[in-house]
Amino acid sequence: MKLSAFNFELPDDLLAEYPAEHRDESRLMVLNRKEQTIEHKQFKDLINYFDDGDLMLLNDTKVFPARLFGNKEKTGARIEVFLLRELNAENRLWDVLVDPARKIRIGNKLFFGDDDSLVAEVIDNTTSRGRTLRFLFDGSYEAFRDKLTSLGETPIPKYIRREVEESDAERYQTIYAKNEGAVAAPTAGLHFSKHLMKRLEIKGVDFEALTLHVGLGTFSAVEVEDLSKHKMDSEQVIISEESAAKVNDTIKRKKRICAVGTTVMRAVESSVSPTGSLNPYDGWTHKFIFPPHDFSIANAMITNFHTPKSTLMMMTAAFAGYDFLMKAYDEAVKEGYQFYSYGDAMLII
């Protein structure tokens, strides 16, 4: 398919600046692929679509405060540093993005904190905005990571123009987040409350987790009209033997398996056996899913409403069916659904 097929008019006021007051009270659009019906519900109504023995597959990655602000040596210019990936723990090397990038060259030093207790030296240019930094810090590795955490900001998306607020540290994190390593939240999971999960458990719905550390590449713009030419950035995936076994048992019992988010769907579709079962995996994926695609593991999916021409929208279209999804998005705009990270949810069954 072509990039232009995924364009649509999205009013600015439908880009969610804040989450719903209560996690499970965001709106939920339910798409039934077999019946081709669209229902309008609240997220807590999710419980009505799942039964005893069904499986919810979660991404338990945890967002770390990846956005730092430092000052360039000599000039004192304010520089934003976005931590992408730790390259070497012993030498404290990080892959980062800097803004404004034109001011940052190899050999420059950046100072962080009111007391300049953390310093970073630029040792390589990786892309137009990408740099490799070596952090200089007197103290243990644990103390260094604590310092990064204390100086860092919750990395809410740039489209949210307001300042980061204290509540974002909690709300831009799923309630089941466990393994730190993401620079963006797996946003479909933000709608789950403890109360809703307990109600689902009482009904007999099972939960299982895998880990995909979300990188900014998930949100990178597609710049080629021919989608087969687009290259995704790699993201780390961990699927344990226990999780794979749970999924495969659910497949055998022919119960519903719901991928909670596009990150879960990417993870499982990256580790499918020739017989259609899920393999344990510990590695990286750069899988790009767009229509047409035959899904092997999940037969239901929860996701947010995505922006035009995004890879997330393309994957959702592959699962829901392109024409059905475009119809649903047209209705979502007319009905005032909130889009993107803090927006409303969609259940596709």
Oligomeric state of this protein = single chain
Amount of helix: 10-25%
- The CATH superfamily of the largest domain is QueA-like
By CATH, the topology of the largest domain is: QueA-like
Count of helix runs: 7
Structure commentary:
The protein is of the alpha/beta class. It has two domains: 241 residues, QueA-like; 85 residues, Thrombin, subunit H, CATH 2.40.10.240. Helix content is 20%, strand content 28%. The chain has seven helices and 17 strands. A nine-stranded mixed beta sheet has the order 2-1-17-16-14-3-12-13-15, covered by helices on one side. Strands 5-6-7-10-9-8 form a six-stranded antiparallel barrel. The longest helix has 14 residues. The mean pLDDT is 96.
Search tags:
349 residues; alpha/beta; QueA-like; Thrombin, subunit H; 2 domains; 9-stranded mixed sheet; globular
Protein topology:
Elements: E1 27-32, E2 37-42, E3 55-59, E4 61-63, E5 67-72, E6 78-88, E7 93-99, E8 109-112, E9 118-125, E10 130-136, H1 141-151, H2 168-171, E11 179-182, H3 194-203, E12 206-212, E13 235-239, H4 241-252, E14 257-260, H5 262-269, E15 281-285, E16 300-304, H6 311-320, H7 322-335, E17 345-348
Parallel strand pairs: 1-17, 3-12, 3-14, 4-11, 14-16
Antiparallel strand pairs: 1-2, 5-6, 5-8, 6-7, 7-10, 8-9, 9-10, 12-13, 13-15, 16-17
Helix pairs in contact: 6-7
Produce a short descriptive summary.
With 349 residues, the protein is α/β, with parallel strands linked by helices. The protein has helices spanning 141-151, 168-171, 194-203, 241-252, 262-269, 311-320, 322-335, and strands spanning 27-32, 37-42, 55-59, 61-63, 67-72, 78-88, 93-99, 109-112, 118-125, 130-136, 179-182, 206-212, 235-239, 257-260, 281-285, 300-304, 345-348. It has seven helices and 17 strands.
